[in-house]
Amino acid sequence: MDARSNIFGSPVAGKVVKYLASAGHAVAESTLPAATQELMRLRASQINGCGFCTDMHTKDALAAGESPLRLSLVAAWREATVFTEAERVALELTEQGTRIADAAGGVTDEAWAAAADHYDEEQLIAMTCRRDWPASPSGFWAKLSTNWLMCCCQRWSTGSFASRATAAS
């Protein structure tokens, strides 16, 4: 498959990537627990069907101390007993927000109220941005790559991604 656009040589794409990365940093530095952010990233990647992103977020979560057991159960979080109630509502918000085309209206009032029982307003905003904004690589970046046919997925094979923590050391 050939790339449709050379985004790496585009001044506009360079600016977009810079601003999107900045938005992602703002969410990462929020008071939303890092473990919750990792679980949300992984679940959105699974829903979006992006192997590269699923691989990347699994390895990042492992490097951040997440357990292999919990990560292996993210796709079945409703039946799994290893997640806290707060993590479960975060995963529910992730699913409802990511499956907008399937969810007839997006996030329900009930799901939002359940999340508000566990997270403050800043954390709820961070959750929404983590899930819906470009800060969610599994959402925005997957959409860009399928439109431009340029994704790192062209050069990716299962297990080839090193976590960002590993790459930084």
Automatic annotation (TrEMBL):
Give start and end of each Carboxymuconolactone decarboxylase-like domain.
21-95
Q: Which SUPFAM superfamilies match?
A: AhpD-like
InterPro entries, sorted: AhpD-like, AhpD_core, CMD-like
What's one Pfam family the UniProt record gives for this protein?
A: CMD
Going by the entry's taxonomy, the superkingdom of the source organism is recorded as Bacteria
Q: Write down the PANTHER family for this protein, in alphabetical order.
A: 4-CARBOXYMUCONOLACTONE DECARBOXYLASE FAMILY PROTEIN (AFU_ORTHOLOGUE AFUA_6G11590), BLL7811 PROTEIN
Q: What is this protein called?
A: Carboxymuconolactone decarboxylase family protein
Which species is this record about?
A: Kribbella sancticallisti
Q: What does UniProt list as this organism's lineage?
A: Bacteria, Bacillati, Actinomycetota, Actinomycetes, Propionibacteriales
